[in-house]
Write a structure and sequence with these properties.
A hairpin with a 2-residue loop joins strand 9 and strand 10. By secondary structure, the protein is α+β, with helices and mostly antiparallel strands. 30% of the residues lie in helices and 21% in strands. It has an 8-stranded mixed beta sheet with strand order 2-3-11-8-13-6-5-4. The protein has one domain: Sandwich (Jelly Rolls), CATH 2.60.120.
Length: 322
């Protein structure tokens, strides 16, 4: 069982000072960003309506992936009730049950990114890095051989069924999105998924308790996702930021939308035409926040490299510029 103190416990203690291991170096601090959320909100992250004609969807996806590495999808086909019910169940796990019950599902500290309830993802010692102001539950969901619902919370009672159903819906949506992304580059629909191989899917529910010093901390430090594509849903509190043209912009939660984040391996597969999205999460002093991220990584046996058709395209473009 993981021995780290849960951030939620620190928050509930009513501390006025943040423990030193959570204080970011000055260059990484968000400063007063959370005091002026309305002014710094990013209202222009593209939103793509998947119910529209493909002739309008493909250029919208192409522009979003090239310019942002992120976009919302609406009318995506995932039941709104499932999104709401899963958010509610995950928030309930963190907020409504005794810590001693939650700790029965604690992560194993001897394995990196082990499944379960934790606070220190991919950190092996207290001095290795500044800690994020968040708790999380990580679920191994695909391939099915990795899926073990008995390792997931049994409270609230609908939790396991909701998580399994959500996993299946996310896989179907990712396959649809990768096909559209492939076609938007003039490739056959199966191209990017073929390059990725069998999905290794993890679903991480992150809980960000109120923080007494949001100007000194981060809920999740700046990074890009290492896999192929990430799908994320937020609650209505907000706190996700994306890096765009050197500025950190807050992504407003869009009701019933799912946020798509291009990850590192897709940038490689598309030979840099589609950009990975650098992002982070800020904290706030008054409200707990929940987000649920679904990561889709390439199969473990796959070697990732640029699609040959895109290498040829770039060679032709470069010759044309000579």
């Amino acid at each position: 069982m993981e021995g780290a103190v849960r951030v939620q416990i620190l928050s509930q203690m009513g501390i006025s000072k943040v423990p030193s291991q959570y204080i970011q170096p000055p260059k990484n601090r968000p400063g007063s960003v959370t005091e002026n959320i309305a002014d710094l909100s990013c209202k222009h992250v593209p939103a793509v309506d998947l119910s529209s004609e493909k002739e309008s969807v493909l250029p919208a996806i192409r522009e979003a992936c090239r310019d942002w590495g992120a976009f919302h999808v609406i009318n995506h086909g995932v039941p709104t009730k499932l999104l709401d019910d899963l958010r509610r169940a995950c928030f309930s796990f963190f907020n409504d049950f005794p810590m001693e019950d939650k700790l029965k599902y604690a992560c194993n500290p001897n394995f990196a990114a082990s499944e379960g309830y934790g606070s220190r993802l991919l950190v092996s010692s207290e001095n290795e890095t500044v800690l994020d102001w968040r708790d999380y539950f990580d679920h191994h969901t695909l391939p099915l051989s990795r899926r073990n619902p008995s390792a997931w919370p049994h409270f609230p009672p609908e939790y396991r069924e909701l998580m399994a159903n959500y996993s299946d819906e996310m896989k179907a949506l990712v396959q649809r999105l990768l096909a559209l992304m492939s076609e938007s580059l003039g490739l056959k629909a199966s191209c990017i998924e073929d390059a990725v191989g069998e999905f290794y899917q993890n679903i991480t529910a992150s809980y960000y308790p109120p923080c007494p010093r949001p100007d000194l901390t981060l809920g999740l430090q700046s990074h890009s996702d290492i896999g192929a594509i990430t799908l994320l849903i937020q609650d209505n509190v907000g706190g996700l930021q994306v890096l765009k043209d050197g500025e950190w912009l807050l992504v407003d939660p869009l009701p019933n939308a799912i946020l798509v984040l291009v990850a590192d391996q897709t940038e490689i597969i598309t030979n840099g035409q589609y950009k990975t999205c650098v992002h982070r999460a800020v904290t706030n002093a008054s409200k707990a926040r929940l987000s649920i991220a679904t990561f889709h990584d390439p199969a473990k046996t796959v070697r990732i490299s640029p699609v040959s058709d895109l290498l040829l395209f770039c060679t032709v473009c470069n010759k044309g510029e000579e």
